[in-house]
Amino acid sequence: MVAAAVQALVIVDVQAAFVTGEHAVPEAETLLARIGSMLARARQAGSLVIHLQNDGRPGTADEPGQRGWELHLPPAGTEAVIRKAHDDGFQGTGLASALLSRQVKRLAVAGVMSEMCIMATARSALEKGFGVVLPHDAHATYDIPAAPGFGAAVPAAIVARVAEWALGDEIELVRSAEEITFTGTWATRASVIYEA
Q1: Per mean pLDDT, which range of 85-99, 119-133, 143-157, 163-177 is the poorest?
Q2: Hey, where are the domains in the chain?
Q3: Chain centroid offset of residue 19 CA
Q4: What distance in Å separates the CA atoms of residue 115 and residue 98, rounded to the nearest whole number?
Q5: What is the DSSP string of 5-44?
Q6: What global pTM score does this model have?
Q7: Which among 184, 181, 165 is positioned nearest to 173, based on CA atoms?
Q8: How confident is the model at residue 4 (pLDDT cuts 50, 70, 90)?
Q9: Which residue, 124, 127, 148, 183, is most buried by CB atoms nearer than 10 A?
């Protein structure tokens, strides 16, 4: 089954701190390959591509200006980078304006972390009336470690699946990133950084 075409790809927090090195999410290389394939197809179709970049607090792995903060998949010249300080990519940013200015109705969301920024951004998009397609194999997170009084650790794959379930039946969940097709938008724009 192939999902209906989307007009935009929103890549959430695919930053060095989360997808490279010893602190990368599980199966980061596979995740990057899937998102990279989506990105190539979106670019070829002339879809809007937006990279969200989290500005972590001082001392965190994604603190602005630090190596871990850098986007792992560099944006092309026509792609926007939207910096954010909250899980929800719409909160305090120009994301909604960027989508509306290109008359986007349906978008695909991919990246990290499933139960935080992916879920918050997808839920906000739904609330704003966008159709949202979420590929099961193109978002990821960490294992939840065991803690006293909370039982065993929860594997990352289960955490990601629970995040999908929590989004309810408004989201269009597809098994594979390869099922998503992309279509162009009415205009192209120069690269812009949208900030709060």
Answers
A1: 143-157
A2: 8-186
A3: 13
A4: 24
A5: PBSEEEEE--BHHHHSGGGSPTTHHHHHHHHHHHHHHHHH
A6: 0.92
A7: 165
A8: low
A9: 124
What are the φ/ψ torsions at residue 113 (nearest 5 degrees)? Answer: -90, 140
Phi, psi torsion values for 140, nearest 5 degrees: -155, 170
CA atoms within 13 A on the CB side of 180: 34
- Known catalytic residues? 117
Separation between Cα atoms, residue 130 and residue 14, nearest integer Å: 22
Rounded alpha-carbon distances, angstroms, from residue 158 to 127, 164, 178:
25, 10, 22
DSSP code at position 176: -
150 SS3 class: coil
3-state secondary structure of 129: coil
Q: Note whether 76 and 43 are within 8 A (CB).
A: yes
Rg (CA), the chain: 16
The CATH number given to 8-186 is: 3.40.50.850
